[in-house]
Amino acid sequence: TLDLTCRRAPCFAKFSEMEEMVNMEAEINEVQPLLLSVTIGSTLQFYFIGKKCEILQDMNRHLETILKEKRDLRKRMIKHRCQESLPIEATYHKCVVQLLTEAVTFIEKLESHLQSVRSIPQIPHMMNNMDTTLSKTEVLMIELEELTEQILKWEELQKEVYSN
């Protein structure tokens, strides 16, 4: 009977409403930090996405300018340069021809020159290898001389044996 009367009485109804409100506030207080962290995370994510978009737009503009320059360079390379060159006085024609032949030979030998320059850091290692190879060669020469002496002695012995 108490249970039945407490539900019907208006004072207990207010009490249950207050209890529901306290429970709701507790749930809100539990959920609120999660919502705040999600909101902050998404805000930061949007901020960094915005920064990345700006960087990509800058790169895109840079690549567009490079492509434009590339097109201009191709057009300039295709165009004939005969009419645009400066006239050279007749007295300098011989010098220009010599200069051009030297330039052509330099360009032909450029790869070998570049390989020579690339091999410079390896020179100490190559020198060590040459030193060890030289010492091995000297040892082999000494052994060859000894072997030659032994062969000559053996040949003399064979001559003596055949002569006797």
UniProtKB/TrEMBL annotation:
One record GO biological process: spindle assembly
Keywords: Coiled coil
CC per GO annotation: centrosome; HAUS complex; mitotic spindle microtubule
Annotated Pfam families: HAUS2
Keyword Lipid metabolism: no
Transmembrane segments: none
InterPro entries referenced in this protein's UniProt entry, alphabetically: HAUS2, HAUS2_metazoa
Ranges in a coiled coil: 137-164
Protein name stated in the entry: HAUS2 protein
Annotated source species: Vidua macroura (Pin-tailed whydah)
